[in-house]
Design goal:
The chain has 377 residues and is of the alpha/beta class. It contains 15 helices and ten strands. It folds into two domains: 274 residues, Rossmann fold, CATH 3.40.50; 89 residues, no CATH class.
């Protein structure tokens, strides 16, 4: 089964002038934003650098210096470089900020297409612990630092670039693309063609209302795998494109597993059971007031800090040391905090229990109806 690398190799022999940007193209650009451009691109430089010049840089190999996904990144970049379609793009306005003290992980890059359009890609969560912490902050009403930076970034790009543009990103990058669009001035919104969110988490309803989200929702294209977790957090799948994946569970979040058939995503539907589980979790999040939710998120971040790991590799590579530090942290939690955790835990499991009872009743009713049907025949 083909993935986005196969898509670029087989179906990208046509220029953007002849065939406009597709959803599959947008995913390719979103994934290229994960490359480690720091050794080869000057931050926030307005001068475009072609993909061919990028490949010729002395330290080009460092772009793929990711121990887990480096092979995928290299294959996608090489395929794009060799294709008719992507060999014409240029890179500009690259930025990468990781600030542990502010729990901020933010990166973005803008691609210039030969059609005169631009595509702004926001990077999703990388391997840093800071990125994980920031992801949990998305559940809160107040914007996280990455969301604020996405608005500033989009405005800076649009100050120099005056043409039409699309925005996109995978995971948290999709959330940042939507947030920056919601909070952009009218002249930028009028230039937006599409906003692509690839398995990106959504927003609390009040965030959309307060930030005039209705103005940009019509331009949003959401794509999620059939067992999506991240992309259905604070969100529904009602208006999303659901795609088949070669993997299962949480691993479906990796878009290199998403199936492309005959040049387009292989589409499917989300099962009712999976939808119920995700909806139950979302309802629980929405049921918590801001104070309790913020307290829960802060506690989770404190536990991550207790691991003393700077990224997820260290977290898993030093699992026993991490476990010891986490145990010490949880042991030192005061009685009030323990009571708080017990209460919000109980509220979640009560909701899950109700959902399971409802599901069991539904299955029983279906079985009884099947028996009645058989008796009548």
């Amino acid at each position: 089964m083909a993935n986005i690398v196969d898509y670029v190799k087989k179906y990208c022999g046509t220029t953007f002038e002849k065939q406009p940007l597709s959803i599959e193209d947008a995913l390719v650009l979103a994934e290229l934003s994960y490359l480690k451009f720091d050794p080869v691109l000057e931050q926030m430089c307005e001068t475009p650098v072609s993909i061919k010049d990028l490949a010729a840089k002395k330290d080009a190999d460092l772009m793929f210096a990711d121990p887990k996904y480096g092979k995928d990144y290299r294959e996608l970049f090489d395929a794009a470089l060799s294709s008719v379609r992507f060999s014409e793009i240029s890179f500009s306005f690259y930025i990468n900020r990781i600030e542990a003290e502010n729990e901020t992980q933010f990166a973005a890059v803008t691609y210039l297409l030969p059609t005169g359009e631009a595509f702004v890609a926001f990077r999703g969560t990388d391997e840093s612990i800071v990125g994980w912490q920031e992801d949990f902050g998305l559940a809160l009403n107040k914007p996280i630092m990455g969301q604020k930076l996405s608005v500033d970034y989009l405005e800076k790009v649009c100050t120099s670039f005056k043409g039409d543009l699309s925005l996109g990103g995978h995971s948290k990058g999709g959330n940042l693309a939507v947030y920056s669009a919601m909070n952009s001035p009218a002249d930028i919104k009028s230039r937006l063609i599409h906003i692509y969110s690839f398995d990106g988490p959504g927003f609390r309803p009040e965030v959309i209302r307060e930030n005039n989200g209705e103005d940009v929702i019509g331009k949003l294209i959401s794509v999620i795998p059939q067992s999506s977790l991240v992309g259905m957090l604070l969100n529904t799948a009602e208006d999303s494109i659901v795609v088949n994946s070669r993997s299962v569970g949480v691993f479906q979040h990796n878009p290199y597993y998403w199936v492309i058939k005959d040049g387009t995503f292989s589409r499917t539907e989300i099962t009712n059971q999976h939808r119920r589980w995700i909806n139950t979790f979302n309802e629980w999040i929405f049921s918590l007031d801001e104070e309790r939710l913020e307290r829960f998120v802060n506690l989770f971040c404190e536990v991550l800090n207790a691991t003393e790991a700077s990224d997820t590799r260290e977290l898993t590579g030093q699992i026993f040391k991490s476990a010891g530090n986490v145990f010490k942290k949880t042991r030192d939690i005061d009685d009030d905090t323990k009571e708080f955790l017990q209460k919000i835990g109980k509220s979640y499991f009560d909701m899950v229990k109700d959902m399971m009872k409802s599901e069991a009743r539904e299955k029983m009713n279906e079985a009884l109806e099947a028996i009645r049907t058989v008796k009548k025949s």
